Amino acid sequence: MRKLKNESGQAITEFAVVMPLLFILIFGIVEGGLTLNNYLRLTDAVRVGGRVASVQGSLGAPAATSAATSALADAAGNLPLQGVDVTASAWQSGQPITVQASTKYSINLPLFGTILSGTLTSSSTQRIE
To answer: Which of 25, 71, 106, 129 would bridge 52 by S-S if both were Cys, CB 3.0 to 4.6 A apart?
Structure first.
């Protein structure tokens, strides 16, 4: 078996082949983590809005909806909310009240652009106090 005399560029060549795949994997993990963080923030914000709506629900639809929407926006921070909906079958103590909100997401990778996009939706149902 013949031994090559100069193998000094082999590691650099292998790294150049593997590096793009490694970067795509790292960017995918980061983008997926950011999307999961946005979903968790949305879920927490909807829960906060549901709690406020359940406390204010006995005051009627306008007061509960306004308070829940305001609390939801405050809890979401800079997350752009869409489709905020506060509903109840009857605005009386003991009845269920549902708060639902959604936000858009997209997962972008270098060289590939947007590979996933859609809407994250969360809802919370609580009893009116």
So the answer is: 71
SS3 at position 52: helix
Residue with tokens 């509903």: 87
Q: pTM for the complete prediction?
A: 0.82
What is the per-residue pLDDT across 8-19, written as a single tens digit (0 to 9) for each? 678 888 888 999
Mean pLDDT of 9-33: 89
In the numeric block, which tokens belong to residue 67? 């308070």
* 3-class secondary-structure state, position 73: helix
AA letter at 38: N
What is the spatial distance between Cα 53 and Cα 96, in angstroms, rounded to a whole number?
10
CA–CA separation, 102 and 89 (whole Å): 21
Determine the structural domain holding residue 109 and report its residue range. 10-127
CATH number of 44's domain: 3.30.1300
